[in-house]
Please model this.
Amino acid sequence: MPVFTSDGNQAVFSTGSSLRLLRCNLDEANGSEEDLGPAPQANVLALAPNDRTLAVGNSDSTIDLIDLQTGSRRQLTGHLRGIHDLTFSPDGRTLLSGSADGTLRLWRVDVAEPLGILETRAHGDIQQVAFSPDGRTLAAAGRDGAGGAVSLWELAPSATQGVKLSAAK
Model:
C-alpha cells in the first residue's frame, strides 16, 4: 500500500501501527525516514497530485487527511464501515472514497467537507474507485452476492450544489 510522490524521491507507507515518510536520494544512495504519526487502522493510502496531501482510509470508517508539509491532520467522517479505496481527482481538489458500506463519497479536500454521496446497493462492498484523467467521470467496482459490478458516473460542476451526478451508465 505504499504511495510515491510524483518525482519518486519520497514514499509513504504504513507499518501497521504508524505512517512513515521515506525520503530517498537514489543518486547518492542515502535517505531519511520520518514518523507521520499513528495509523493502526490504515487500509489504503492516496497522495494528491501536488504531493502535499495524504489521504488515509481506515478500517474504522474514517479518512484522515494529512498535510505532508505541516503535519496537520483533519478527519472525514460519514462512511458506516471500513474504507477500501481512495483516489484524488486530477486537480487534487476532490477526494473519492469507496467503502464496505456500499457507498461512494466525494469530499472537498481544502475544507474537509462532503460534496456528495452515491449509494450503490447493487455493488455491495465497494472495492475500487477511480477518476477519469479529465476528472469528469468516476468509476466504482464492487462485490455483491452474485459477483462483481462496475458503474460509471458523469460529474457536472454546479455553483450551488458542488457536484451533480448523472444517472449511472
About this structure: Residues 4 and 11 are 4 Å apart (CA to CA). The domain at 41-165 is CATH 2.130.10.10 (Methylamine Dehydrogenase; Chain H). The chain has one domain: 41-165. The mean pLDDT is 86.
